[in-house]
Records
---
Amino acid sequence: MTRFSAGDPKARRQLFVDAITAHRQRASPFLTIEVDETSLEQEADVGPAAELGIPWVQFADGIVNLDCTNEELERLKSLLDTFPAFKIEELTRPENAEGTNVRVSAKADPNRIAQFCEAIVREVFACPEDVTVWVTAV
């Protein structure tokens, strides 16, 4: 894997596919995708809720993992209607933390998982179309 960021929908999906492939080839514990904080500063009024910090998504062992606010969780549940092969496996609401940690089973090929991750960034986290994301761990 030679590039670690992308800033448009098509490039992000390809980045996610490449990261998933590299993660599987390396048998790494997980891969992490983070939204670029500087991309969000310009969209402060419409972007992700600051209360949970920078939006991130992790993938490992067929599970997509993310933290989300209550509003984001509702958007995630709606999104799952368009991804029937993906199901919420576990919701964790720690007492000392804001939001909910969500684990979603993702028994699909890298392309479909990449589409799902892109939809999380855009629809669940409400990021703008030109948001930059980084693969920070593979």
---
Amino acid sequence: MQYKIVELTCGLGNQMFQYAFAKSLEHHLQMPILLDKTWFEVEGKKHSIPFSLGLFNIDLPYATQEQISALKEKFNSFESKPKIMRSILKRVGYPRVARSFAFEYKAQYLKPNPFAYFVGFFQNPLYFKEIASHIKEVLCPPPH
């Protein structure tokens, strides 16, 4: 796997934390990190929250539908396997989904890891403390 994907969801504040986390992943892992904004593009969703991160001059590319589908296909295949097989695949580094809940910090996410798709809010400044100045620069409000 030559890239990792971070899902963007919810309001602008969450999108900003998710971007900061993605940028930190890029910094720590020295590999391409893509953003998945399809959460905002699914027709018939009950939310009316707009994708707002585009207000800023972000410098990470968006994942294509093909890249997202390829990863999700692997995850679905993984989940359908027997428990013992999933355990073995985890040990050999099979790509997986990483989940993060509000305010928690998982240092292992910023080190080489088998996770390929990141879902969560990543609302902990420890994730991006090493690149805080870049994050502040990029996420500066646009001029009027």
---
Amino acid sequence: MTDNYFDSESYTKIDFTSTKIKKGEYDNCTFTNCNFENIHASNIQFVQCEFVDCNFSNSIVKHTAFRDVAFMHCKMIGVKFNECDPFLLQMRFQSCQLSFSSFYQVKLPKTAFLNCNLEEVDFTEAWISSSIFDGCDLKKAIFEKTNLEKVDFTTAFNFSISPEKNSLKAARFNRNTIDGLLLQYQIIID
């Protein structure tokens, strides 16, 4: 990795599929309306950065560091977050499209997922305790051996979570969506 360092810079409407992103550390930078779709964004460090209206779909983030990074209104379909650098990994997602992404075995406690589409996202063996899924669609999201302790699901919907296969101590649910914990039993709730 090169020693490029970018501090407090703004990047707007850059198509990184035609303009190669420079490897290095981006500290306190803002990316707006940028396209990262299908690119190799491996071995890059993003520290206290914001991504707004960006497309990250199917981008490769192997050994990429996301430290205190916010994603707002981003399209992030099929991103393998499980390949990111786990050291100080911290992200927030607001109004993002994260369908088909993977958080397999990722340690990401206290994460905010706000009004996100998380359809068919893989949270298998992830550690997302004390996180919040506010207004999130979790249709066909996979939760297996996932640490969901103290997670707030009160406004989440379309989830199916097995209490027997996940750690749910002190997790919060809305009485109207509790059926998402019982679907595996094929019982009828009126």
---
Amino acid sequence: MLRPLTRRAGKLSLADPEKQRGNDFSMAQRWFIVGAILLAASFIQIPIVLDPDLGCLLTENEKILDGGKIGIDLFEVNSPLSIYMYMPAVKVARMTGIAPEIIVIMMVIIEIAGALFLIDRAAQAAKLGARERTISTWSLALLLAILPGTVFGQREHMATIALTPFVAITGLRWRGFEPGPVAILAGVGAGLAMSIKPFFALVAGLPLILGIVHQRSFRALFTSEGCTAAVIAIGYGVVLVAVFPDYLFTYAPMVADAYLPIRREFGGLVLVPIAVISVSIAFLRLLAPQELKMGSDAMPWLAASIGGAASFLLQGKGWPYMAFALCMFAIAAPLLHIRRPLRAPVMIGGLATIWIIGLYLSSPAPGFPPLKGRIQALVKHPRLLTLTDHVGLGHPLVRQIDGTWVGHSCAPQLLTAGAIVRQNSSQPTQPEQAKSDSVIQLERRHLLASLRNDRPDVILVDTYLLSSFQFDWLAWANRDPELQMELGHYREVEDVGRVRIFVDQSKLER
């Protein structure tokens, strides 16, 4: 029987049909398992994906489709791309009638599949073996689809997915392989991730810097994917200047003054990166001792994890979802470089560690009492407003009660909270005091406009500042005579835990 000819090392040779069929089966099996993992993830996420941040961003996109403008009608502490990245889900939802959060799940699953495909194409271009490609694909599918838990679909999750092909290709170049033309697409993903949050430049940049040290040449900095990422990030900056000047020059400086300084103590923040990276290094020693050397294959992945740690610390909020890149790449570093069969204790310990990290990522934020049933009993489909610095009071509640959000921001007094903390924690200079006062006055004007123009049916008033200190937000609002007059139209009907519920008196009289 004639065998097809193949080229090996510049020479023609006879290919073994049985081996070719084995490779085809291996590839089919690889993607069948990936499909099963992604399908399982989508079903897991259906009841849990709608968290406060996602609920807020979906609602903001709906207001944009209804004519609202960022920096004028809508104010979001994150960059405009953080909002618009969910616009496709909202548009498809309006066209199909499917809930937008379900579309978000589908959108993220497609993104994961695309990232895995890019990584596999790069590995094929580098002529890696089928076994290594299969382990890589399955491992990353689990880490990107199952590990996130309640982080699934958030900005940090989607940005980390977009960064993963970039880190994988950096790892291939580290080993001396050429990833092929898909490297450009990996650069696009990294550029978009940095545009979502500039902090992600640390995740992409640290492996590149390590590559410069490893190769003793700046050529590692000027790869196709690195240049593409830079072009995308710079292009996004140009778009901000041209399309969103109100956000960039008016609101963003207020965010920098009042929101960014809100941070936890460094001593409490640093424990998480130390623990996660230490465990990653410990497993590298157990699974592949040679992977701790400077030239080892795991270094780019470990460097990306350290970049994620730096991002987590610089943001300073301590919220678990901000540690997703740190955790994902820290797990990937040893997992992708297993070089020998695992002993049972090591396997059990590794699975337990991943489970604990998953629990940490999905740990709930300081919450609010159940309010859905109570509000629905008072007013059907209400126009809702909150007095709080926490997004979780109004979102995703307003979507669950089929209400209408009438605030200018999902956390209407977030910047005010930052200004108050800053004023109370130090002796501000006169210019600093003026900046804080302008922030507070801006959010007072927004609140007054919402009360006068949008006439909420229900107002939820928080009694905590940054979920840490008791604070009377109603008294804060009533210090302004015009706000006091408008709030006089509302009557407190109930207090539930930390929340006071006010209803428009005209609704109660019907």
